[in-house]
Amino acid sequence: TVPFSLSFLFPNIMLMAPMSSSLHSARRCTTLPRRHVRARASSSSSSGSSFGSGMDAASVMKPFHNKSAIKVIAGLMNFDQADVLDIANAARLGGATCVDIAADHELVTRVRETLTAHGKQEVAICVSGVDPVNLAAAMELADMGEIGNYDWFYASDPEFQMDAETVLHIAHGVKSRCPSKPLSVTVPHTLPLDAQVDLAFALQKDGLADIIQTEGAVVSRPQRSGVVGLIEKATPTLAAVHSISRGVNIPVMAASGISDVTAPLALAAGASGVGIGTFISKQNSTVGRIAAVRTVKETMAVSFANQHGASQTTQYY
Q1: Is there a contact between 115 and 124 (Cβ–Cβ < 8 Å)?
Q2: What is the pTM of this model?
Q3: Which of 55, 22, 12 is nearest to 195 (CA)?
Q4: Which one, of 152, 100, 99, lies nearest residue 122 by Cα?
Q5: For residues 211 and 183, what is the distance between their CA atoms, to the nearest angstrom?
Q6: Which of 156, 162, 178, 198 has the highest local Cβ count within 10 Å?
Q7: How many angstroms separate the CA atoms of 148 and 169, rounded?
Q8: Could you report the per-residue pLDDT of 157-193, keeping only the tens digit for each?
Q9: For residue 145, which phi and psi values (nearest 5 degrees)?
Q10: Measured distance CA(103)–CA(47) in Å, rounded
Q11: pLDDT tens digits, one per residue of 78-103
Q12: What's the rounded Cα separation, in Å, for the pair 209 and 129?
């Protein structure tokens, strides 16, 4: 049967796709969302050809292979164009390697214009979603895609859960439609840790993910403030990074609850990069957002230097 969360979120689209043999699943029909996704599937959109083709896959993946990836997350359901563009600009000026936005063609167009307004694009555009049809369509205009950033769904529905079979199903739907663009897949924190590792391995084995993203801050309940509280908040995602990075050979990105304090811990745990959302969006000015991105980048560079020597940190600058 379709999980309650998906039957609630995806009432209008029916998609048939074979399930991964890694979990011994059979072909099934899953209902997937349209009302919570704004991507326009038609490639003939008036905005679709108004800019260049963006960054190639090798350029997008390079920071992950260098363990220097910093993805600034605007939010899967953030369609406030002014806010998204401000976040994208802060990502560019702060030195991030990627900005993650909603799977919306108009947003991709405007963000691309922002990132290329002062020269060559250096920050990849990632579009996030959970509808394979709309996400794949938006990925054609963007530089990469992300299945996940489930925090909005957790907040909207206390009973929301994403099981492994459904994640594999969505990933298959996206990869079959847009195989040339890198795809990151968030492993749900609601799965037991060993099941998270199994899912990540299945995604890698079946060629359905180029990057694995972790999460968990939504269930974390820090008991203290300050630095200790920041570490407590990131504990679930750091634990997932530690376990998953030892079970797969593709890059793992730590997201959810990551800050300048915990980004270096993520690298030490085995991450190839970090995703930062609330830490950036909560800043009350563009300057504050730029400074927040730069702080994360600097702390990661120091951590990398401590592990590999100062001569190896040039990719951060």
Answers
A1: no
A2: 0.83
A3: 22
A4: 99
A5: 6
A6: 162
A7: 13
A8: 878 889 999 999 999 999 999 999 999 999 999 999 9
A9: -130, 165
A10: 14
A11: 999 999 999 999 999 999 999 999 99
A12: 14
